[in-house]
Amino acid sequence: MKKVYAAITGVESYTPPDILTNSDLEKMVDTTDEWIVTRTGIRERHILKDPNKGSSDLAVPAVKKLLEKKSIHPDEIDMVVCASATHDMAFPATANIISDKCGIRNAFSFDVSAACSGFIYMLAVASKFIETGTCKKILCIGADKMSTITDYTDRNTCPLFGDASGVVLLEPNTEYGIIDHILRTDGSGRKHLYLKAGGSARPASHETVDAREHYIYQEGQTVFKMAVSKMADISVEMMRKHNLPADKLWLVPHQANLRIIEAVARRMDLDQERVMINIQKYGNTTTATIPLAIHEYEGRLRKGDPLILAAFGGGFTWGSLYLTWAYDPV
């Protein structure tokens, strides 16, 4: 019997229509377009302005478009997983809410929380349900409304984040799909990138709100150095483990900072044409960056192409995932 792989057989994404440019930020905080672009590579980001909508509302349009594109009825979906750092609420799971809003009735659904590494962690988990024959069709969703936890008075963090979603469909395949993954965690790094309040250890109160502790706290230099070294190390490890040639390989990096992406690509000896980059248009959309990039580059991918997905996020969490692309452009 041939080995069964979990293959990506479709991808979609969604970004809200409102755009926050660097020029807009110049009117809000002490910053400039040149300062932001030089340090991050970001020129604009999309924002879901409606205060009554959450991450599930970013995910629903992408899921519906994917089901329509693949001519799949919602009842055919076996499992729905959502990776997010900005869940709609503490419970139920955002994946439950997305399933309901999309009319998915026959699936079980749950969330994954691994910050910016969440999409890779989720693919690794979901692939096992395909490989064992438990599920035939799985939706893996990355969705984050980062604007809700971004402090727009903090010049160091407010230029970084945007809102978006991305979704892939996983199905069984005997030739192509997810081949390997390497996942790592160092919990001692949590103090450098986290949300100080809002959890059970420090519930919301007048004190935490007044202290602005419900926004992202990040020690930029520490996170930058760790992201470069860990993403590069784990991607090179994956390349060497599978003898992947740099001239054939696609790198799909988490879009946190252009300088991080470029440093990782140099370590892997990759030409920039083999690196998926769209950070300039969307900023860091956390769990959505990788599927958003894959969707934009979908038309350039060919069946059998090797891809390495790489990410680093709060926790610290990081990982790389190696897959072969399962279809040609339609």
Category by helix and strand content: alpha/beta
Strand order of the largest sheet: 1-7-6-4-5
CATH superfamily of the largest domain: Thiolase/Chalcone synthase
Considering DSSP H and I runs of 4 or more, what fraction of the residues is helical?
Answer: 25-40%
Account of the protein in words:
The protein has 330 residues and is of the alpha/beta class. The protein folds into 2 domains: 5-175, Thiolase/Chalcone synthase (Peroxisomal Thiolase, Chain A, domain 1, 3-Layer(aba) Sandwich), CATH 3.40.47.10; 180-324, Peroxisomal Thiolase, Chain A, domain 1, CATH 3.40.47. It is 30% helix and 24% strand. The protein contains 10 helices and 13 strands. The strands form 4 sheets. Strands 1-7-6-4-5 form a 5-stranded mixed beta sheet, with helices on both faces. A 4-stranded mixed beta sheet has the order 8-13-12-11, sandwiched between helices. A two-stranded antiparallel sheet has the order 2-3. A hairpin with a 3-residue loop joins strand 12 and strand 13 (317-324). Helix 3 packs across helix 4 and helix 7 (220-241) runs parallel beside helix 8. The longest helix is centred in the last third of the chain and has 22 residues, at 220-241. The protein starts with a strand and ends in a 6-residue tail after the last strand.
Layout: helices, strands, pairs:
Blueprint: E1 5-14, E2 19-21, H1 22-26, H2 33-40, E3 44-46, H3 55-69, E4 79-83, H4 94-101, E5 108-112, H5 118-131, E6 138-145, E7 163-173, E8 178-185, E9 193-195, H6 206-210, E10 216-218, H7 220-241, E11 250-253, H8 258-267, H9 279-282, H10 289-297, E12 306-313, E13 317-324
Parallel strand pairs: 4-5, 4-6, 11-12
Antiparallel strand pairs: 1-7, 2-3, 6-7, 8-13, 9-10, 12-13
